[in-house]
């Protein structure tokens, strides 16, 4: 299927690895020009090389990078200094650390809100009017399955990401945007095979003394698909939401989790 977005420009955040990289790769393979951003310059440059060397990348698709912290005003300014307008934006930031809510102070909450709620809102605010004027725009926010099924030790993430979900539910449905072919949707990943999950599993293994293989097996047993998701398949879902064919999908929370969430909505 031709997604109809070749030649568009996309900003993909947190794109040096994991789910962000999977989204960038899927878009590049569709002929989209991509600006990738992340904090780690070395990993980001390696990601750029991988994307440029991808045999499935159409020759015309450009790849650029900016090493910056997108959660800060300076980081966002650095990105928009390279290119002021985008047709597609994929927001993504690492989740806050787990813990007991009794131990979190105001600074912890503000940091979580800055990264996982306010930064996506700032990117949306800076982009949607231009998208509407041009008659095309796609924004996909990578959030978490914990928005649907909160996890007690991830209170910072539950709160910040749920705030973003509520905001998107309203703004995505404004006539000015929806009628101008501008869509905003959220992707809520379950358990995917990423560095973050591997680090979490390694921490559990160190804490409990259980083998890593046993912890991974237990996780898979809690997923009806009996496996972890891959960044490539996550990226394919993102690319479809960014496509011309997804113009009638907006304000939605898409849950790729292998069937783990037990609810009906």
From TrEMBL:
> Any signal peptide, and if so, which residues?
none
Name of the protein in its database record: 3-oxoacyl-[acyl-carrier protein] reductase
* InterPro entries the record matches: NAD(P)-bd_dom_sf (IPR036291), SDR (IPR050259), SDR_fam (IPR002347)
Family stated for the protein in its record: Belongs to the short-chain dehydrogenases/reductases (SDR) family.
- What is the source species? Pseudorhodoferax soli
Q: Which Gene3D superfamilies match?
A: NAD(P)-binding Rossmann-like Domain
């Amino acid at each position: 299927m031709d997604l109809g977005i070749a030649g568009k420009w996309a900003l993909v955040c947190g794109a040096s690895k994991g789910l962000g990289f999977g989204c960038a790769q899927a878009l590049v393979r569709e002929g989209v020009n991509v600006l990738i951003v992340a904090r780690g310059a070395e990993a980001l440059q390696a990601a750029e090389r991988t994307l440029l060397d991808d045999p499935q990348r159409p020759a015309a698709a450009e790849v650029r990078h900016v090493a910056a912290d997108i959660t800060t005003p300076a980081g966002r300014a650095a990105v928009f200094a390279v290119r002021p307008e985008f047709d597609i934006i994929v927001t993504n930031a690492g989740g806050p650390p787990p813990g007991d809510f009794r131990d979190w102070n105001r600074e912890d909450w503000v940091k979580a809100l800055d990264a996982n709620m306010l930064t996506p809102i700032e990117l949306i605010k800076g982009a949607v009017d231009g998208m509407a004027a041009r008659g095309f725009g796609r924004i996909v926010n990578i959030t978490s399955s914990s928005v649907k099924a909160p996890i007690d030790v991830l209170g910072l993430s539950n709160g910040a990401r749920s705030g973003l979900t509520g905001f998107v539910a309203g703004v995505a449905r404004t006539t000015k945007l929806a009628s101008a072919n501008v869509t905003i949707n959220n992707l809520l990943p379950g358990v995917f095979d990423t560095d973050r999950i591997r680090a979490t599993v390694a921490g559990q293994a160190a804490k409990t003394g259980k083998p890593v293989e046993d912890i991974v097996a237990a996780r898979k047993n809690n997923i009806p698909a009996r496996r972890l998701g891959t960044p490539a398949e996550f990226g394919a879902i993102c690319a479809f939401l960014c496509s011309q064919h997804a113009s009638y999908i907006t304000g939605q929370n898409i849950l790729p989790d292998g069937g783990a969430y037990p609810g009906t909505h």
